From TrEMBL:
Pfam families: Tn7_TnsA-like_N. SUPFAM superfamilies: Restriction endonuclease-like. The lineage of its organism: Bacteria, Bacillati, Bacillota, Bacilli, Bacillales. Coiled coil: none annotated. Residues 46-120 form the TnsA endonuclease N-terminal domain. It comes from Paenibacillus pectinilyticus. This is TnsA endonuclease N-terminal domain-containing protein. GO terms for molecular function: nucleic acid binding.
Length: 216
């Protein structure tokens, strides 16, 4: 487990600063660019991610000058741990960024850790999916545990086949806000899946029960 190394907010730390509450960690999370925020949305809503930490560690190579703080570390339910650096594609060829990533990769190789550089090409590859996940988080913040009766009814209705939210709303005697909340919370927990990457969340969204794995 790591503790955020949040330094005094000068330079890049004063620009596009996001302070968000994480339902997964039950604490505020500091993010220092819009791209870091979007990456956090993907990590926060991935049911296979057990825990994570922003600005978790300062990489330093013995005998060399220079250090570099990772943007995020996360641990998945299979035990794997990944240190990540979030960068815009246009910045990857900058001399200081090249050196920053070299230090991080070298540290990870020495310490047997996995390293990943993520850019907007990966993080924002599916805008519809990302926007649906952003809409999910307020529902989870409002209630990360749906009404047990709603949860039980939804699972029993989905046990045999996919159904649209519109179909479910016709069968269940609850309002749409409560139905949306229950479904979003169950997606967040990995109990059900939905086609969040093809169109915006609504009555036509298909929901089904599947294995707990990363939502794509």
């Amino acid at each position: 487990m790591y503790t955020p190394l949040i330094k005094k907010r000068t330079g890049r730390y004063g620009n596009n600063h996001w302070l968000v509450f994480s339902p997964k960690l039950k604490r505020d999370v500091n993010l220092f660019s819009d791209l870091e925020f979007d990456n956090w949305v993907l990590i926060e809503t991935d049911p296979t991610v057990v825990t994570f930490c922003e600005q978790p560690w300062e990489a330093e190579i013995e005998g060399e000058k220079g250090t570099s703080i990772f943007d995020m570390w996360y641990k998945k339910d299979d035990g794997s741990e990944i240190f990540t650096e979030i960068k815009y594609e246009n910045d990857l060829k900058k001399e200081d960024v090249v050196e920053q990533i070299r230090i991080q990769k070298t540290w990870c190789e020495i310490n047997g850790k996995e390293h990943l550089v993520r850019t907007e090409k990966e993080i924002r590859s599916n805008r519809i999916y990302l926007e649906n996940l952003k809409e999910m988080i307020p529902y989870v913040l409002n209630s990360d545990n749906p009404v047990e009766v709603d949860r039980h009814k939804l699972k029993s209705l989905l046990v045999d086949s996919k159904k649209t939210i519109g179909d479910l709303s016709k069968v269940l005697d609850i309002g749409l806000p409560r139905l949306y909340e229950a479904i979003y919370c169950m997606i967040y927990a990995g109990e059900v899946k939905a086609d969040l990457g093809t169109h915006y969340f609504g009555l036509e969204t298909e929901v089904w029960i599947g294995e707990k794995k990363e939502l794509t």
